[in-house]
């Protein structure tokens, strides 16, 4: 078994590092980690970086050339995601590259692929995911938003919640009920929804760390052409389930975690009193370092599978579950190592490491909820991975 990257992949990693060093301002990673960067500064840099990547066909580099990609392998795409997360690169392809594009390639018509994919790969469209509702999260098949066919159009009514980045997105990947009389898993469909359609209103929701990326989205008689249906009508549940596997795969949690552990190790070396006040911290740091390396191997497996034409299934849930719970453990280790002043938020003159770990601690709560909770992931692993009966 050979876990090594090819010389070509290693060269690509070096090129990427040079690109990031050139495009990101000095000290960007630390400033972003402590939340010093304003939303406006982040958005402007995200736009520049995304366009810079798109110009080199790097934004969706694993996609076929006719859809705006570079025809590179999944492993190269993963190297991109790894380096981008380590550098805390803003922008990149987001949901569009990570799961909307792969879903369109599996279920979209040729016309949809030719229309929508190059706009993602070119950095022109950003996508939000419109699945969850106030009464449907883990039990997603219970969703009530309706898309009822009316001639050549669908008419959408209902409410979605927790839609990340909906206020900036130009397109939404919508799951809606097209057959209200069918069994709940059988009456759903998937749509490409222009977010500027008449009848859509968006209300931002502030999270507990002060972030404003989440939104409630209301639909009142929103009309979209029937060509915006992706895949087969009433087969949306199965399409959403496969699309979630793309969302749950990824190396970012481990790559960010690596940098977050390294910062704590640097702090422990610089300020010896941190270690003498917290004798257990050295063991905690050693444990996180081991877990991070295990995590990389879990995440690396998925693009290697995809490269051989195998779609990840419960493997994506393993990666998501382990990465999100590791993020929380890293935050807890940071809080313990830095002591009581480590709990102060950015902005306090007494905060340790700029308050970054108290911010991470708050942010990390969401990591085991988004894209399906840890309980949901464990159920999938038990059922699809271990073959256990439904709980
Ligand atoms: C930061 C963040 C970003 C998000 N972004 C998006 C987005 O862009 N688009 C989108 O559509 N959604 C998004 N979500 C929503 C997310 O997918 C849901 O919050 C999640 O699926 C859980 O659903 P819920 O909040 O309704 O909780 P519930 O489903 O009500 O769950 C409550 C609790 O019950 C547990 N539970 C439920 N069912 C079971 C079961 N069968 N077995 C064991 N335990 C169970 C859950 O694990 C959880 O602990 C986001 C969420 C967060 C936190």
Rg of Cα set? 21 Å
What hetero molecules are bound to the protein chains?
Answer: flavin-adenine dinucleotide
Helix content class = 40-55%
Low-pLDDT runs of 5+ residues are none
N→C terminal distance? 36 Å
Shape: globular
Average per-residue pLDDT, rounded, comes to: 95
Helix and strand content put the structural class at alpha+beta
Verbal overview:
The chain has 391 residues and is of the alpha+beta class. It folds into three domains: 7-92, Acyl-CoA dehydrogenase/oxidase, N-terminal domain (Butyryl-Coa Dehydrogenase, subunit A, domain 1, Orthogonal Bundle), CATH 1.10.540.10; 128-235, Butyryl-CoA Dehydrogenase, subunit A, domain 2, CATH 2.40.110.10; 249-385, Up-down Bundle (Butyryl-CoA Dehydrogenase, subunit A, domain 3), CATH 1.20.140.10. Helix content is 49%, strand content 13%. It has helices at residues 7-23, 28-33, 39-55, 74-86, 94-107, 110-121, 236-248, 252-270, 272-277, 281-307, 314-338, 356-364, 374-385; strands at 127-130, 146-150, 153-160, 171-177, 188-194, 200-205, 214-225, 229-230. The longest helix has 27 residues, at 281-307. The model has no long low-confidence stretch (mean pLDDT 95). The structure holds flavin-adenine dinucleotide (FAD).
């Amino acid at each position: 078994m050979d876990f090594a990257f090819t010389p070509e992949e290693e060269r690509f990693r070096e090129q990427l590092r040079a690109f990031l060093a050139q495009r990101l301002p000095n000290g960007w990673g630390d400033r972003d980690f402590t939340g010093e960067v304003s939303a406006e500064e982040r958005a402007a840099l995200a736009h520049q970086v995304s366009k810079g990547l798109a110009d080199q066909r790097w934004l969706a580099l694993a996609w076929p050339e006719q859809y705006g990609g570079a025809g590179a392998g999944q492993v190269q795409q993963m190297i991109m995601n790894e380096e981008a997360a380590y550098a805390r690169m803003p922008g990149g392809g987001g949901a569009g590259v990570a799961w909307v594009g792969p879903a369109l390639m599996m279920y979209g018509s040729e016309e949809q692929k030719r229309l929508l994919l190059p706009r993602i790969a070119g950095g022109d469209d950003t996508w939000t995911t419109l699945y969850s509702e106030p009464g449907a999260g883990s039990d997603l098949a219970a969703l009530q938003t309706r898309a009822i066919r009316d001639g050549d159009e669908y008419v959408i009514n209902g409410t979605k919640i927790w839609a990340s980045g909906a206020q900036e997105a130009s397109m939404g990947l919508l799951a809606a009920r097209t057959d209200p009389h069918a069994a709940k898993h059988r009456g759903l469909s998937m749509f490409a929804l222009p977010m500027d359609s008449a009848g859509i209103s968006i209300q931002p929701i502030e999270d507990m760390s002060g972030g404003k990326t989440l939104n409630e989205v209301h639909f009142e008689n929103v009309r979209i052409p029937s060509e915006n249906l992706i895949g087969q009508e009433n087969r949306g549940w199965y399409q959403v389930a496969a699309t979630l596997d793309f969302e749950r795969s990824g190396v970012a949690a481990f790559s960010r975690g690596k940098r977050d552990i390294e910062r704590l190790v640097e702090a422990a070396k610089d300020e010896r009193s941190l270690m003498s006040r917290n004798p257990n911290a050295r063991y905690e740091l050693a444990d996180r370092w081991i877990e991070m390396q295990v995590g990389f191997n879990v995440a690396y497996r998925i693009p290697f599978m995809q490269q051989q034409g195998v779609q990840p299934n419960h493997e994506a849930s393993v990666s998501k579950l382990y990465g999100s719970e590791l993020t929380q453990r890293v935050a807890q280790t940071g809080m313990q190592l830095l002591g009581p002043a480590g709990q102060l938020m950015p902005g306090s003159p007494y905060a340790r490491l700029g308050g970054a770990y108290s911010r991470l601690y708050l942010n990390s709560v969401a990591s085991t909820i988004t894209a399906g909770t840890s309980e949901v992931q464990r159920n999938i692993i038990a059922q699809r991975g271990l073959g256990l009966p439904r709980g």
